[in-house]
Structure formats: structure tokens, C-alpha cells
Design brief:
The protein is mostly helical. The protein has helices spanning 3-46, 54-91, 98-105, 126-157, 159-183, 188-201, and strands spanning 113-114, 117-118. The chain is 77% helix and 2% strand.
Length: 209
């Protein structure tokens, strides 16, 4: 095996390890957020209504954290895809096809998507459905927590402190949505990856502008 192939193989193993690690991290963060939110709901209903104020914050942080985990999945898959194509080219045949399986079975790269949820033709998968499910569940938790927070503000906290809380929460929420839309559906994140990878490996024929 040539030095270039050895190095590419080592980097491919590293990217596959990163992909596995961030899949585990994603579900670990989902479980943690779910447990914390359930405890907060129980506490707000049974102990102190002011605990409702923490629910939207935790839901938002959980959404941002899991999107962060997914951004590393996209990173590792982008690099692994180019490495597999390079190794296939060196071998003279398509022996490594994991990147093609992931593209069609998990979620596609280089297409507009909500983190990993693609709506383009042939892009919707069970992976995408699970992303939609977690996203809608998180939005529902956020909304219910916000409704409970409004009740707590009106009955316990007061308008001044409650108003400050709502302004800060709204500002952070809008910022997170705007930056997320720029990075994921807007394609900025994958464009940056593609620019470096195209420079290193040459323009990918499978990339979608």
C-alpha cells in the first residue's frame, strides 16, 4: 500500500470513529434533555411554578446541542466520503461504498436540510423523520414551558422580572434560529467543507451546488 493510501486509510478510520462518537453523543444529549425536562415539569406542577421558566431554556439548549452534534456527523461524513472516493480511485474499483449507502439510507450531503432533514426528491429517510420528531417534540416542550412561564410570571414573579426573562429568551431563540437557518438550510456549513475538500481532492461530481 502506498503512503498516500495508508494516510487516507488512517484518516478514514478516524472519521468513522468520530461519526460513531457523535452519534452516541447525540442520543446521550437527547436522553439528558428529556430527563431534565420531565423533572422540571414534575417540579413545576408539584413544588414551584417558577420551575416552568427553566423548561424553554433547557429545550432550546438541548436543540442547539443536538444540532451541534449533528454538525460533527456532517463534518465526518463529508471528509469520509472524499477519502473513500480517493481510495476507490487508487484501487481502480468501487470497493468502499459506505458513503453511497449513507447518502441514500441516512441523509444526503450537499443539499438544503434542517440539520439532517432533507425535503428534496429522494432525500427523506427514517433518519430525517426522527430529526423531525425530535424537533417537533422539542418545540412542543418549549411552547408548553413558555405557557407555564407566563402563568408563573403573572402569578409569582412579577411583570418587570418576567418581562426581562421573556426578552432575553426571545432574543436567544431568534438568534439560534437565524444562525441555524444560515448554517444548515442555507448551506453555509457544507459550503465551507466543500471548499476545502474540493481544493484538496478536486471538485466532487456528486456535489450539489
Amino acid at each position: 500500500m502506498s503512503p498516500d493510501m495508508e494516510l487516507a486509510s488512517a484518516q478514514l478510520a478516524r472519521m468513522r470513529g468520530m461519526n460513531a462518537a457523535y452519534h452516541q453523543r447525540f442520543f446521550s444529549d437527547i436522553r439528558f434533555t428529556t430527563v431534565v425536562v420531565l423533572l422540571l415539569f414534575a417540579g413545576a406542577l408539584g413544588v414551584d411554578r417558577r420551575l416552568f421558566l427553566a423548561v424553554p431554556v433547557i429545550a432550546l439548549l438541548g436543540a442547539c446541542q443536538t444540532a451541534f452534534d449533528a454538525s460533527y456527523l456532517i463534518f465526518s461524513r463529508q471528509y469520509a466520503t472524499r477519502l473513500e472516493r480517493f481510495l476507490n480511485q487508487q484501487l481502480g474499483r468501487d470497493l468502499l461504498v459506505a458513503h453511497r449507502l449513507e447518502e441514500t439510507y441516512l441523509f444526503p450531503l450537499d443539499r438544503p436540510k434542517v440539520v439532517t432533514l432533507a425535503f428534496s426528491s429522494g432525500g427523506f429517510t427514517w433518519f430525517g423523520f426522527m430529526t423531525a420528531l425530535y424537533t417537533l417534540a422539542g418545540a412542543g416542550v418549549y411552547t408548553v414551558g413558555l405557557i407555564g412561564s407566563l402563568d408563573a410570571i403573572g402569578g409569582v414573579i412579577g411583570i418587570r422580572a418576567g418581562g426581562t426573562y421573556l426578552i432575553v429568551l426571545a432574543a436567544v431563540t431568534v438568534t439560534a434560529i437565524a444562525v441555524g437557518a444560515w448554517w444548515f438550510p442555507g448551506g453555509e456549513g457544507e459550503r465551507r467543507l466543500r471548499a476545502v475538500l474540493d481544493e484538496t481532492f478536486g471538485t466532487s461530481e456528486e456535489a450539489v451546488a
